[in-house]
Amino acid sequence: MHCGHSRFVWNLAVEQHSHWRPGRSSAPGYLEQCRQLTVARAENPWLAAGSQTVQQQALRDFAQAMAAFFDPKNPAGRPLWRKAGRDEGFRITGRGSQWDVRRVSRHVGQVWVPKAGWVRFRWSRAVPPGVKSYRVTLDCAGRWHVAFVAIPKPVPAPGNGGVIGIDRGVAVSAALSTGEMLHAVGLSARERKRMRRLERKLADAKRGSNRRGRAKLAIARLRAREPDRCKDWVEKVSTDIARRFDVIRVEDLQIGNMTRSAKGTAGEPGRNVRAKAGLNREILRSGWGLLVRRLEEKAPGRVEKIKPAFTSQRCSACGQVDGKSRKSQACFVCTACGFACNADVNAARNIAAGHAVTARGGLRDAGPVNREPQLLAS
């Protein structure tokens, strides 16, 4: 009920702002919408049966989303309509006796939800003191989650002057300049085989049948394991890197452009569409953007972005730039000095040194590391 009321109020706010255009009368703000909500609750008993706190927080979330949309420094898009069964959830705020959380046993806790009472949840981690709000969500796999709002402190720098370069790829999710090869955790071969079997079962099921519903839920639960494992991997890797190094350098990749569809149009259809779609899935599955975002949040001011041009073709030992040095996806052998190394590790070392090779063959340094003279190809 709370999810339905929150979605209904959000969609009403979206509808109000969808008719607003610059130069016309201003759209109602949060306070005016709260007054309108009071009138709507008086006229509609089904809406009054819900929690006013939940409905007002939906309006506050919408106001924050609109402020982020108009902020030139924030790339957030315009708030869109919410659909039933997708991104369901609501937020509760309050102080004192309005809501509370308590621990029942080692692995079980309880949280107070208005109109529902005490709700049990799995106590996966300690609730930080001073928390005044929480959000309850329902994912596509039918799992309920409760998240308490608390901004953690940044990871302190070790102070050892260490610099690390990270090269992101598909075969190797993250290659470090230290030689470490990190792979994002996904579904196992056995789970992928079960996924294909469930997809065939879903295709054979009749639309609207209970058998089709059970198959869809089983597929959703199996698919949810992959992003869960990827997020867990990113959290552990980002925390470990932030604790070990003072400066973290990554490629400045435009992931949105890299994963754009190659389907084209009816007049100009694309080529190798299926291969490009498979590459896009692997890029998104590797968690490239999430890794950098979490590094920037855990190590603010210590993450530097380097232009990725020719970092995989430059020799980290002598500075020679030659595309023929990249023998294969994993093998790099310099045509000038004969230096051999893993191709991803070689690129990570170039990123750590802050070298960005321009299209004309010039060299630009992004930091004080490795500023000795370098040999460049003519």
3D structure, described in words:
- The protein is α+β, with helices and mostly antiparallel strands.
- It folds into three domains: 2-148, no CATH class; 163-305, no CATH class; 307-365, no CATH class.
- Helices cover 38% and strands 17% of the residues.
- The protein has ten helices and 15 strands.
- It has helices spanning 2-18, 30-43, 45-48, 52-70, 189-204, 210-244, 255-258, 273-285, 288-298, 343-353, and strands spanning 88-93, 101-103, 108-113, 117-122, 133-138, 144-148, 163-168, 174-176, 181-182, 247-251, 303-306, 331-333, 340-342, 355-357, 363-365.
- It has a five-stranded mixed beta sheet with strand order 9-8-7-10-11. A three-stranded antiparallel beta sheet has the order 1-5-6.
- Helix 5 (189-204) runs antiparallel to helix 6.
Q: Which stretches of 5+ consecutive residues score pLDDT under 50?
A: 356-378
> Which strands sit side by side, in order, in the main sheet?
9-8-7-10-11
Helical residue percent band? 25-40%
What structural class do the secondary elements suggest? alpha+beta
Total number of domains: 3
Q: What do the pLDDT scores average to?
A: 85
Shape: globular
Gyration radius (Cα, Å) is: 26 Å
